[in-house]
Amino acid sequence: MAWGQQRRGVDDLVAKLRANETGPALLVMSMRKVDESGLCALADALAENSSLEELLCSGHSVSEDAAKRLGQALRQNSTLKRLSVGCAQFGDAELAALLDAWENSTLEALDLEFKSLTAGGMPHLGSVLAQPSHALQDLRLGRNDLGDGGVAALAQGLRNGPLFLRNLELNSSGLGVEGCRALGKALRGSSAAQGSLRLILSDNPAIGDAGARALVGDEAAEDKDDAQHSASSASSSEVSSLSSVCELHVDACGLGAEGFASIIAASDRVGSCFHALRILAVGRNEIKEVSSVTASICATQLDGLDLRANKMGLSGLAAFGAALSKSSQTDSDAAPRLQRLNLTSIGVSVVEDPTGAGNEDFRAAVGDLLQGVSLKELRLMGNALGNDGVAILADLLRENATLETLGIGGVGLTREGAEALKTPLQENSTLRTLELGGNDLGDGKTLVDDFRAARPDLVVALDGQQQP
């Protein structure tokens, strides 16, 4: 917007909505002037529109009256599937107004992240989720101070509702042990149709190990009432195919080894809502030792594990690698399904030793890791590997036939060390992406040209930019 120019309103957008000329998505930019009359006009036009599928209207103040008008429009509109609305002052009253006429709405995704919502607004949302006619599958409530009470109210609706969510985001929501317990009961007691849930609970440090245990539960004994609830609201065939968590993010949730072990045990337990867990992110916690649950990891369906910023150190990495290697050698049928492993900033330090003798622990640890798991992605960014550590990785890659992506950004690699990678990588035809950003490599263009000459099919990523 030019200096001194008045902010544009939404009259043109209203006209496009009425004429069905917006295309499938409409973004109401923050530089537009969107007052209450403008929002009401948008809502009225939306009620008549039959082409818009996504409305992005975040960052604009919404009054209770405007929110109610928008909710009424959603009841009449059967085309819109995704909605993001309101600013940081949206609040519980505005949420209640938006949901007041929600019956028969066909909206599938609602983004209410960072909208000053509290526990007081969650019963309204829980009531919507319990409605037999709701279509919501994607609900984003991160960065709202909901607390355990708010999450419990939401969970009650999820438990009673006909269609379980496919994506639920509660990051930075003040969630603790009791909220996790309510969520766990909702998972185990829901009579929803079979589906896969992506559950984001990161940045809730009050969860801790106790919260992790409460979330995954002891489904054999703890919740007989949940089984009775399910049986009373669904047939036996429906109960046997409840929704399951396929992706769980509990980064920075105060977890230790015990909480991590509880989640892994649940994912290894037949009949658990976590038995189909494929992606687990437990970064930025206090998990220093994982080798004791390696056998259980090998028995799960996990193919993505994110352990970033857990200070395992070289000893923890070595124990993990050795346990993986042992499991794969003991029982080939129990070989882990892991394909993506993130070990960024786990406190590994490789000693610079001209003789190389001091680096054998790192060589053994990574060697065991690559032997025990058919990894496609391995990220070791932020560890003090230096040129010696990277040289060891390169040497191990000579005979590796599975790894496609290697992340070694910010590991203290120099231009000299990077140059030494070329020859080993010529012998490896599997690696497709090499992430080198955050290292002091000098002229990036000439380095990429050098790698291109050695491996024309290799993509080299430097500081966020991929250069084929």
Automatic annotation (TrEMBL):
GO terms for cellular component: cytoplasm. It comes from the Eukaryota. InterPro entries: Leu-rich_rpt, LRR_dom_sf, NLRP_innate_immun_reg. SUPFAM superfamilies: RNI-like. It is found in: Cytoplasm. It holds the Pfam family LRR_6. Keywords: Cytoplasm, Repeat. PANTHER family: NACHT, LRR AND PYD DOMAINS-CONTAINING PROTEIN 12 (PTHR45690), NACHT, LRR AND PYD DOMAINS-CONTAINING PROTEIN 3 (PTHR45690:SF19). This is NACHT, LRR and PYD domains-containing protein 3.
